[in-house]
């Protein structure tokens, strides 16, 4: 009888122990999976692409700005002058091309024809004089020197007539196709230089690339700043990222696209978020991240995108991330 009673008691203890194990196992599986991390808001150093004298800064540290707001201005007078020079070169190149494409004007052709007629008259007169001197020399009525002078005048007049006729032919034919092509390329170059000058002038205006809060005002009006030198530091309002870490045994509980809840120690507000990135490379747990495991354990970095942060999540703020743990298969 005692043996039967002991067996019954032992069986009851085993059943109770099993029930307790199953209960806590189910509680563990159904409990929210928790991670710890920090807010990682992106910051942008804002500066001009050109150098110059800082003329005006419109915002102070801590001011909220919208995308497209004008933050600062450079003295643009030197760049406006460069743009004016570029515009003049474009006009000059356009006029030159129009001249080449239009060809010679009627008045220029008439002038060239008049020069040909004048050269013909001079040549005819020189030819008559040369023939007269040859006839006189045959009767010894003139000297050899006079004949030589007449021949030289004849040759000179003939050369000038030939030059005048060639000039007329060139004017009537117009400009060469190669000259027109070169003129077109010169116009393209002038327009490209104008576009460069226009871009440089536009770069004297510094605009906010996105909504955010100015956390640093680095320079003041009157400062000569170099190209690329930062004058403001902008903390972006959107997107807001959370940097967290998950241990290798828990890696299967998270996946890109998983919805999470984000809380802070400062308020009771619960923010929603989505896991957007899981690092493919393991690393040691950073010292500024609190986890239940040893800090020397290897972990994987997560990037969580927070939605509707309403400025409640600030740079470096520690946060708690919760997501439902995946149920184990029986």
Task: Describe the structure in your own words.
This protein has helices spanning about 1-30, 75-100, 105-140, 145-175, 175-200, and strands spanning about 30-45, 50-55, 65, 70-75, 205, 210-215, 225, 230-245, 260-265, 270-285, 300-305, 320-325. It is of the alpha+beta class and about 325 residues long. Among the domains are: about 45-75 and about 200-235, Beta Barrel (OB fold (Dihydrolipoamide Acetyltransferase, E2P)); about 80-200, no CATH class. α2 (about 75-100) packs antiparallel against α5 and α3 (about 105-140) runs antiparallel to α4 (about 145-175).
Please give a handful of descriptors for the protein shown.
29% strand; six-stranded antiparallel barrel; 44% helix; 5 helices; alpha+beta; single chain
Overall outline: rod-shaped
Task: Point out poorly predicted stretches.
Answer: 325-330
Rg, alpha carbons: 46 Å
Helix- and strand-based class? alpha+beta
- What is the helix/strand order? HEEEEHHHHEEEEEEEE
Instruction: Tell me about the largest β-sheet.
Output: 6 strands, antiparallel, barrel
Number of helices: 5
Q: Which bin fits the share of residues in helices?
A: 40-55%
**What portion of residues belong to β-strands?**
25-35%
N- to C-terminal distance: 38 Å
Can you list the strand order of the major beta sheet? 1-8-11-10-9-12
Number of strands: 12
The overall pLDDT average reads 80
């Amino acid at each position: 009888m005692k043996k039967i009673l002991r067996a019954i008691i032992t069986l009851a203890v085993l059943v109770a122990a099993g029930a307790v194990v199953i209960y806590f196992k189910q509680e563990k599986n159904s409990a929210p999976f928790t991670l710890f991390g920090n807010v990682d808001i992106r910051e942008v150093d804002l500066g001009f692409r050109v150098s110059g004298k800082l003329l005006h800064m419109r915002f102070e540290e801590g001011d909220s700005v919208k995308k497209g707001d004008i933050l600062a201005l450079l003295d643009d007078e030197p760049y406006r002058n460069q743009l004016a020079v570029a515009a003049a070169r474009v006009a000059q190149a356009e006029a030159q091309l129009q001249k080449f494409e239009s060809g010679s004007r009627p008045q220029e052709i008439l002038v060239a024809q008049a020069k040909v007629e004048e050269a013909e008259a001079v040549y005819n007169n020189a030819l008559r004089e040369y023939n007269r001197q040859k006839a006189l020399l045959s009767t010894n009525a003139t000297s050899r020197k006079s004949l030589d002078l007449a021949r030289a005048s004849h040759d000179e007049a003939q050369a000038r007539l030939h030059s005048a006729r060639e000039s007329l032919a060139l004017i009537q034919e117009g400009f060469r196709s190669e000259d027109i092509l070169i003129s077109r390329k010169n116009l393209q170059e002038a327009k490209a230089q104008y576009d460069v000058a226009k871009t440089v002038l536009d770069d004297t205006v510094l605009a906010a690339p996105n909504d955010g809060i100015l956390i640093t005002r680095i320079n003041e009006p009157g400062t000569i700043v170099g190209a690329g030198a930062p004058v403001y530091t902008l903390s972006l309002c959107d997107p807001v990222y959370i940097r967290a870490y998950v241990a290798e045994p828990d890696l299967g509980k998270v996946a890109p696209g998983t919805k999470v809840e984000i809380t802070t120690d400062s308020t009771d507000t619960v923010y929603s978020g989505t896991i957007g990135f899981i690092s493919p490379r393991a690393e040691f747990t950073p010292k500024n991240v609190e986890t239940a495991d040893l800090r020397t354990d290897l972990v994987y970095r997560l990037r969580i995108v927070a939605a509707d942060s309403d400025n409640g999540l600030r740079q470096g703020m520690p946060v708690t991330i919760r997501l439902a743990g995946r149920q184990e298969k029986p």
